[in-house]
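ARCHIVE CARD
Drawer: 12
Card no.: 0347
Subject: one protein chain, sequence and derived structure
Cross-reference: see card 0346
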Amino acid sequence: MTQNSAKSKKIISINKKARHDFFVDDSYEAGMELFGTEVKSIRNGALNLKDAYCVITDGQLFVMGMHVSPFEQGNMQNRDPLRTRRLLMHKKEIMKLMGLVTQKGYTLVPLSIYFSGSKIKLEVGLCRGKKLYDKRDVEAKKQADRDMERYSKRG
């Protein structure tokens, strides 16, 4: 048997707003502390990363604002959809991120959530905020690339 299934990545959800609002300088993989009904709900794709962000408190990494819809067949076992969830990373990585966030003005933003084998992982981005003119520059560049592509197909 091969280890192919352990390395496969199946993306569940992507935070498109994060790439629009931030420059992503680096990304890290983190495990998540979840309950059974939350895992079942995530497997169904019932989550939203749009307003989510990460904080470091007492040397631990947490994701806040991530909405996981309650599992339909889960009765009393369902948790609060917006509860704070602990992320699992090595202590050295968390300390490194804490130093960067406090000194250089970075922020931690969830970029995507995916399956890594049978485990659910969260990709956390070390991000800097974009100004309005940065967003306009990116949009103008995309538009220019689209125009060039259309022109090259015609001629």
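Annotation on reverse: The longest strand covers residues 22-32. The chain has a mean pLDDT of 82.
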